[in-house]
Structure formats: structure tokens, C-alpha cells
Design brief:
Helices cover 37% and strands 10% of the residues. The chain contains three helices and two strands. The chain has a two-stranded parallel sheet with strand order 1-2.
Length: 98
């Protein structure tokens, strides 16, 4: 059996930091309860290209690799890996998997 484990908001809290960067970049005040990874889609005044550039810059600046792990996440993955073949799923752009 193989189990895929997402990194963002499963092993590391990324969305709160993403929203902080998003709010700074676009001069907004989106709260965590209203947050989402494709949050720019909710603001038609933000051009798609500018939103994409923002995300690309985050990746280039090491945003995702600099997130701290959620407490005990590492130990949980190690325990799981002892029982099954576990692997991490890391995507540059969020997608929906059916």
C-alpha cells in the first residue's frame, strides 16, 4: 500500500503565511477563516498574470521550503512509514484530484 501525504497544511502550516504575503502584496486584509489557496480568484481586480507572478515569486523565494512542521508531524510520518510505503506529495500549483 502506498499513501501520499501532502505537505501544505497537513505537515506544515502554510496557508496563514501565504495569506500574510498575499495581503501585503495586494493591500488586502483577508482573514484566515476566509482564506484559500486560489484566493486571488475572489478578487477580479487582481489580474491573473499578477496573481500568478506572486505565486511564482513565493516559490522562487523558498516560501514553501521554509515552513516549519506542525508539532509531531515528523514523528507521525515516521510511524506511518514503518507500517506502509509513504511518500510526500508536493505540487507547485494546487490541483483537484478526483
Amino acid at each position: 500500500m502506498k499513501i501520499g501525504i501532502d505537505l501544505d497544511d497537513v505537515l506544515a502550516d502554510s496557508l496563514p503565511h501565504y495569506l500574510q504575503a498575499f495581503n501585503r502584496r495586494f493591500g488586502l486584509d483577508v482573514e484566515l477563516a476566509d482564506g484559500a489557496w486560489r484566493i486571488a480568484d475572489r478578487f477580479p481586480h487582481i489580474p491573473r498574470q499578477e496573481a500568478d507572478e506572486f505565486f511564482t515569486e513565493l516559490i522562487a523565494d523558498g516560501f514553501f521550503s521554509s515552513r516549519s512542521l506542525i508539532p509531531h508531524a515528523k514523528e507521525a510520518v515516521e510511524t506511518l512509514a514503518d507500517a506502509v510505503s509513504a511518500f510526500l506529495v508536493v505540487l507547485a500549483v494546487p490541483i483537484t484530484v478526483l
